[in-house]
Design brief:
- The longest helix has 28 residues, at about 390-420.
- Helix content is about 55%, strand content about 10%.
- Strand 6 (about 110) and strand 7 (about 115) form a beta hairpin.
- With about 700 residues, it is an alpha+beta fold.
- The strands form 3 sheets. Strands 1, 2, 3, 4 and 5 form a 5-stranded antiparallel β-sheet that branches. It has a 5-stranded mixed β-sheet with strand order 9-8-10-12-11, with helices on both faces. Strands 6-7 form a two-stranded antiparallel ribbon.
- Helix 14 (about 305-320) runs parallel beside helix 16 and helix 22 (about 490-515) crosses helix 23.
Length: about 700
């Protein structure tokens, strides 16, 4: 019974043309009928290979069954001198079965340890598909018979079961944990959509608004965070795609386990998947863009469609956070250098990418043009307005980053940074996209205030490399590395190298310990992650346990109170009665510019945001902060409050400054202690602004 086969052939050693032609000739000598041979295609090396490949494809017909035909192909590889010393390494000849059709024109499907038909990775490899399309008329049946995302889910459900379980857990946390100050601020943005904002581009407000439209107002926290767990889930999917594109194969079970550990248990990534922050959209669209680029990087030509799509995605990343500009520049410069010999043929791609990216991010430019470029000026000055070299704040930021990454994440990043020279191809694309942002923020941390979470998007971009680094046991001999000279004289650099390599030696020991799932360091790392990513959020998400935690802190929760106090105030009937009860001695304003409902104000931007999110019916809250520019200044720039009744609600430490700034005529002053928050007394002042 004759079977038609589609074969991919490649070579990157010696006389590549001759190797391919010899392989085809030897098949003909073994009674294999060659139907059609494609043109030859030269492509960049992949995997561990470091020389240019010559690829082709051909259709043939043989009476041998697939396993026997595979043995025939392997014997030809051996005869032509192939030695399988390194997986994905250089090779004299490589022959792969892509597709097979029997005499009844039925697709042959096979999935064994030695042979998979159709080839599971063929659709992801442009250097395979381009020549293959010259000799085989691909049909929908071919596509459906090939390993796809759906097949992967069904054949290895654990990969996605864990992701779905994480998604559901994050939905629960998103619906139950009180807003942080920044989250309440972005939630309030969603009620007043603009083309951009002073602090950040607008996409986070669009996320918030979409949730508020889909979720009842009584579910305040979920209404703001509804899309956040979904964005995290999608980011994980695209991250998995990047890792597979880098390796040109599906992940091994060990790599899949590392993927789950990184995406689901590293605090910086896991907690970010349930919090309403601009980073979540930046991470999603940056990951999608890099997934596209790891697919594009091997294409012989890039055109209009690829340019428009990549420009759109990078533009969407730019609508989330200005960090996207650095990530995009690093990635695109790498792509430009990598494809410098194809610049002329790729010209349409680059033009369309630039046009699509600028068009997508244009709302930010339009808004800033209307507001004296205030966002660009503000963000541009953040890293250069410090008071000289400041080491301690930089060290504090570094410690914060380590805590965010946890032991496993910190070790993983360390392994990436010390192994930079071993990366190539798509791995270098990720380094080009992430390292510039890391370096810039590190430099800024020595001269101006930076926050630990600012580097999280860069660490996320590096995480596919972390998947492959975690578990490696590449320890090295300290003595041989140093090449110690018996009669060496005093040399400061020499001893600095000793210190560095000693540190490196210790870190490699830690690395090897982490590679063993039963080791104490791994158990400690996972225990830390479970505590931070599951147990602590679980305590905060349940009202009883949250109140119990506060009582264990002697009703003085400190920094935690910034998140919990306004949720507790919403449940404090005494506070609500005092804050909103009318004083009979109050004057009635006759000013026509005053609203029918009294103004309510906070003294800081975060107080205004938390009051708006937590008070009944979510009233509009004014912000009386004169020292810090925020979204509220632009929103309330046309409001006239002079002569109008106003109620100021804020922490007592802020009240007096607001009264002085407004020259307030007060009719009522209240001092309220919210249950469980004795360290943060709340002041309520009612009166008129002169």
């Amino acid at each position: 019974m004759a079977i038609r086969y589609l074969i991919a052939v490649g070579s990157n050693l010696g006389d590549r043309h001759q190797f391919i032609e010899s392989a085809i000739e030897q098949l003909q000598q073994k009674n294999v009928r060659i139907l059609k041979v494609s043109s030859f295609l030269e492509t960049d090396p992949v995997g561990a290979a470091d020389k240019m490949f010559l690829n082709a494809a051909f259709g043939c017909e043989s009476d041998l069954e697939p396993h026997d035909f595979l043995k025939q192909l392997l014997s030809i590889e051996i005869q032509l001198g192939r030695q399988r010393e390194k997986k994905w390494g250089n090779r004299e000849i490589d022959l792969d079965i892509l597709l097979a059709v029997d005499s009844n024109n039925q697709q042959i499907e096979m999935d064994t340890k030695d042979l998979q038909i159709p080839h599971p990775m063929m659709w992801k490899r442009s250097f395979v598909m381009k020549p293959a399309s010259e000799v085989w008329a691909f049909t929908l049946r071919d596509l459906l018979a090939t390993k796809s995302l759906t097949d992967r889910v069904l054949s290895d459900p654990s990969v996605y079961v864990i992701l779905v379980a994480g998604l559901l857990l994050r939905f629960f946390f998103a619906a139950s944990i009180p807003f942080g100050n920044d989250e309440a601020y972005y939630w309030d943005w969603g009620r007043n959509l603009q083309m951009s904002y002073f602090d950040h581009p607008p996409f986070v407000s669009w996320i918030s608004r979409a949730g508020q439209m889909l979720v009842p107002a009584s579910w305040t926290y979920l209404s703001g965070r509804l899309l956040v767990p979904i964005f995290h889930f999608l980011s994980c999917i695209f991250l998995l795609g990047i890792a597979e594109n880098i390796k040109n194969r599906t992940l091994t079970s060990k790599e899949t386990r590392a993927f789950h550990i990184i995406t689901q248990t590293i605090p910086a990534f896991s907690l970010g998947g349930m919090m309403l922050m601009p980073d979540i959209g930046l991470i999603l669209f940056s990951t999608l863009a890099l997934w596209l680029m790891t697919s594009y990087i091997k294409l012989p030509n890039l055109g209009l469609r690829q340019g428009l799509l990549l420009g759109l995605v990078f533009g969407l990343a730019g609508l989330n956070k200005y960090h996207a500009f650095v990530i995009a520049c690093g990635a695109l410069i790498f792509l430009l250098v990598h494809r410098r010999y194809s610049l002329k043929s790729d010209l349409v791609f680059w033009i369309s990418l630039l046009v699509a990216g600028l068009a997508t991010v244009s709302p930010v430019f339009i808004w800033n043009a209307q507001h004296q470029w205030v966002s660009f000026l503000f963000q541009g000055q953040r890293g250069v307005t410090g008071d000289g070299l400041r080491v301690l704040p930089a060290v504090q930021t570094l410690i914060g980053e380590i805590l965010f990454l946890g032991p496993i994440g910190a070790i993983g990043i360390y392994m990436i940074l010390v192994g930079l020279r071993k990366n190539n191809g798509s791995s270098n694309l990720l380094l080009a996209a992430s390292l510039p942002l890391l370096v810039i923020l590190k430099i800024f941390s020595f001269s101006s205030q930076t926050l630990p979470h600012w580097t999280i998007p860069a660490f996320w971009v590096l995480s596919p490399l972390m998947i492959f680094k975690i578990g490696e046991n590449n320890t090295s001999d300290l003595i041989s590395k140093m090449n110690l000279a018996a009669n060496s004289n005093w040399n400061p650099i020499f001893y600095l190298k000793i210190v560095f390599h000693k540190f490196n030696f210790i870190m490699q020991k830690i690395q090897r310990a982490f590679s063993n799932s039963r080791s104490i360091p791994t158990k400690f790392g996972l225990a830390y992650s479970i505590l931070v990513c599951i147990i602590f959020p679980l305590v905060l998400s349940i009202e009883f346990s949250r109140d119990k935690l506060i009582s264990l802190l002697n009703n003085q929760p400190g920094g935690l109170g910034e998140m919990t106090i306004w949720n507790a105030a919403e449940r404090d009937r005494q506070f609500l009665d005092l804050a909103f009860s009318k004083n009979t001695n109050e004057l009635i304003s006759n000013s026509p510019s005053c609203p029918t409902v009294d103004f309510i104000a906070g003294v800081r931007w975060f107080t205004a945001a938390q009051l708006a999110a937590n008070l009944p019916n979510h009233p509009m809250i004014l912000n009386l902060d004169r020292d810090h520019l925020s979204y509220y200044k632009f929103r309330d720039s046309d409001l006239i409050i002079s002569g109008c009744p106003i109620t100021i609600i804020s922490e007592m430490s802020h009240i007096n400054s607001a009264k002085e700034a407004l020259n307030l005529i007060t009719s009522q002053n209240l001092d309220i202690v919210i249950e469980g928050h004795s360290d943060r007394p709340i002041g309520v002042v009612r009166g008129y602004a002169k």
